[in-house]
Specification:
alpha+beta; 153 residues; globular; two-stranded antiparallel sheet
Length: 153
């Protein structure tokens, strides 16, 4: 997620070097390495910016590293994630109450303004996600830990 002042700290180098150090690379002739090590190969990650990602490896990495306001439950229902709760008071309004104490990797606390900033980036014309946000009329911080998203009527 972005903050208004730029990226929160991203520990990608540590993640990738840790993954490389997990065991010897497979030379294609079978695995002689440790049996409790999972090695996953993927293509190059083109972007860690969720508004600019357009390739599968970036989606995978961002999906592991970033948390949304809500997420799907295995049953198919929607459940809270960074949002402590959410409601849909009318057909075009979604109100998210943010979980207190959630921090970025740099230990700065996530604020409603950070969420608004991040969500509005998805609407920018250069964002890969812009078409998905065309119906969004407004995204506003409406309380100390609250964000309201309204769709066009």
């Amino acid at each position: 997620m972005f903050t208004r002042s730029g990226w929160a700290s991203w520990p990608w180098e540590r993640c990738w070097s840790s993954a490389r150090a997990a065991g010897p690379p497979d030379d294609g002739g079978g695995s002689d390495g440790p049996k409790d090590t999972l090695t996953i190969a993927t293509g190059a990650v083109r972007s860690v910016d969720p508004a600019r990602q357009y390739d599968q490896p970036s989606l995978w990495v961002n999906g592991l590293a970033l948390e949304g306001l809500i997420k799907p439950h295995p049953s198919g229902k929607v459940q809270p994630a960074l949002a402590e709760s959410f409601e849909n008071p009318d057909p075009v309004t979604y109100v998210y109450t943010l979980r207190k104490g959630v921090k970025f990797w740099n230990q700065a606390e996530v604020t409603p303004e950070d969420v608004v900033f991040s969500l509005k980036r998805y609407q920018e014309q250069t964002a890969q996600t812009a078409s998905k946000y065309k119906s969004v009329k407004s995204i506003e911080a409406t309380g100390p830990m609250e964000v309201t998203v309204k769709q066009g009527a």
